[in-house]
Design a protein that fits this description.
The protein is an all-alpha fold and 333 residues long. The chain is built from 13 helices and no strands.
Length: 333
């Protein structure tokens, strides 16, 4: 089988899985339409100053992405141009799953500036590796440093006290949608062939990890690049937390910043396993559940997540699309 066929099969699997998750989220939204409507109404009365801070946090996310990418690149490129590319990449990221859109845009950008494809892919891979390391390190750190906060999140989850009830037809449909999508994706290939591809991909991922670790050692020998890489990667989850925290405070929710950081780090780590465009779907459901675990009402939790999505996705969508078109026309990407 050709490389093109293998890539097509992999892309189809991701699309099917993402479609299954999206379908389940739609079903859940219809099932809890009253909560969604109430959440939208609560967001309409939010504090504008806190929402402005959330918008500034979204702009800071682009700056953090710019810093980390500058640290991973083998050559220095204009900072303003790299920032513009990150704005454009955020638009494509919301169209394709698992951040593949942003990866393609950044690789193309570096190639346009004379960097070989291998070096460009290595730089983007190094950037992703640093982001993953800092995310997991922060998650482990907050669990070890603030176990009481993590404990409170678990204690406040309401447990059923009455007799157990069977899920309704809506819940069954949601579960069935996800299960059918996963089963169909797995049965597209013969089991032996699927296992062989899985083994080959694991070996390829291991080789890629070795190469990225070698690149990371090279970056660490340059203090300026290392500082940009780690600072950008480290501040990404903090700015996401700032946006979510500001949205919650705009709804007058008395929640601590540390609790929001724990919620975001935990649920985003789980949602990263679902290859949906921009994390939309899995992250939203997990955030609502995490906020509800702190004692927030379902209405406020839904309203906060809706606000978080509006500020980080829908509000920047038009300027990001315009930047993408402009960079394409100027052949920067």
């Amino acid at each position: 089988m050709t490389e093109h066929s293998r890539r097509s099969g992999s892309s189809l699997t991701k699309v099917l899985l993402g479609a299954g998750v999206a379908g389940a989220v739609v079903v859940l939204g219809v099932m809890h339409r009253s909560a969604v409507d109430a959440g939208g109404d609560s967001l309409a009365g939010a504090d504008g100053e806190w929402l402005l801070l959330a918008v500034l946090g979204t702009v800071a996310l682009w700056a953090a992405c710019t810093a980390s990418l500058l640290g991973s690149m083998p050559v220095r490129l204009p900072v303003a141009r790299v920032f513009a590319v990150q704005v454009a990449a955020s638009f494509v990221n919301h169209l394709l799953p698992a951040g593949s859109g942003g990866i393609a845009v950044n690789v193309r950008f570096m190639q346009r500036h004379g960097i070989s494809r291998g070096s460009a892919v290595g730089a983007v891979g190094l950037n992703s590796l640093a982001t993953g390391i800092t995310h997991l390190t922060l998650l482990a750190g907050v669990v070890l440093i603030a176990p009481s906060t993590v404990g409170r999140l678990g204690v406040r989850v309401p447990l059923p006290t009455g007799p157990l009830t069977h899920p309704g037809p809506g819940a069954a449909l949601a579960i069935g949608t996800v299960a059918a999508a996963a089963a169909f994706a797995l049965t597209l290939k013969r089991p032996r062939r699927w296992l062989g591809r899985l083994t080959a991909r694991a070996a390829s991922a291991a080789r890629q990890m070795v190469r990225e670790m070698e690149e990371l050692k090279a970056v660490l020998r340059h203090p300026g690049r290392a500082a940009a890489l780690w600072l950008g990667s480290l501040t990404l989850p903090f700015f996401h937390t700032l946006v979510l925290f500001s949205t919650l405070r705009s709804l007058r929710v008395p929640i601590a910043l540390g609790s929001v950081l724990v919620i975001y780090l935990g649920v985003s780590s789980v949602a990263a396993l679902i290859p949906s465009p921009g994390g939309i779907g899995g992250l939203d459901v997990a955030l609502v559940a995490g906020l509800a675990a702190t004692g927030a009402s379902s209405t406020v939790a839904v309203g906060a997540v809706l606000g978080y999505r509006v500020i980080t996705v829908w509000l920047p969508l038009l300027p990001a699309a315009g930047m993408f078109a402009l960079l394409l026309r100027r052949q920067i990407i």
